[in-house]
Amino acid sequence: MLETANSQFAYAVQRWSELRNMPGSNPNGRYQMAVETRNYLCAALQNVEGAQRILNGIKFPYCAPDEMQTLRKAVEYIFCDMNTPPRHAHAFDCYSALYKRCHALVQWVKYVIDDTIKKDHNKVEAEFKAIQRQLREERMKLIHDKIHQVTGEQVDMKADDQPKNAAGEDDHQEEIKHEHSIVQPDVISAADMPGDKKEMPDVPPPPQPVAAPPPPQEQLAPPPSMEDLIGDVKEIQKRHEKDMEELRKTQENSRARADASLEAQLRERRSRQARLRVHEEQMQQMESVQ
Questions:
Q1: How much is the pTM?
Q2: How far apart are CA 26 and CA 14, in angstroms?
Q3: What 3-state class would DSSP assign to 138?
Q4: Are 51 and 43 in contact (CB under 8 A)?
Q5: Cα–Cα distance, 154 to 251 (Å, whole number)
Q6: Residue 13 burial (C-beta neighbours within 10 Å; 0-12, 13-18, 19+)
């Protein structure tokens, strides 16, 4: 999502720069470039904000909310900025600055993922696989012993070397993609433009990611702390213990209600059987009298 926003920022800056060289005798062409610039800037802005919503526990060191608000206000005056060179140059500086900040944000996120998250993830994953294999081997051993105890036969059972992925992981990724889809800009065609369509320039294909030189790692903002990435561990543990306690109480209440309901049914059954016995005894007494 951030890489898409970075590409959209780059394309918007490119089109805004080309607008400066578009002759005033081609107002439709100038208008189209301004609309394209606006659409790509708005799409990039929404994608950056979408990425921030996904990573709501991490504060971005670049493309902060106040910077995005500044860009949003600048886009509102884009059709005024296109008419005078000074305002065009000022808007170009604003768009270029946001593009550079977004590019630095992309590099910062990659650095955090590669240098912090992946290292910890790989370490935990290796420990998890080792424990998972031990549990699988122990389970196979118990099954083997049980089969031998029941049937007296020796069965050769081996655990798989490759553990399967955790169930639901892919579904979770698809759910995130569905909830936070990438925003694409609106496409402008000649039919959407007023005036003479013959003066319309060709609409270029969608932009490809720009291979801008990444900023040096030492110039990037420092990575977030582990508390910023995963939260307060003690607070998470307390919340987990509280949730487990509530779950335990809920299970106990459900069990108590089930026991009470079962006891009530048993009492009703015993009462019904007692009434039936009394009725049968009365019928036998009446038959004996007759």
A1: 0.56
A2: 19
A3: helix
A4: no
A5: 42
A6: buried
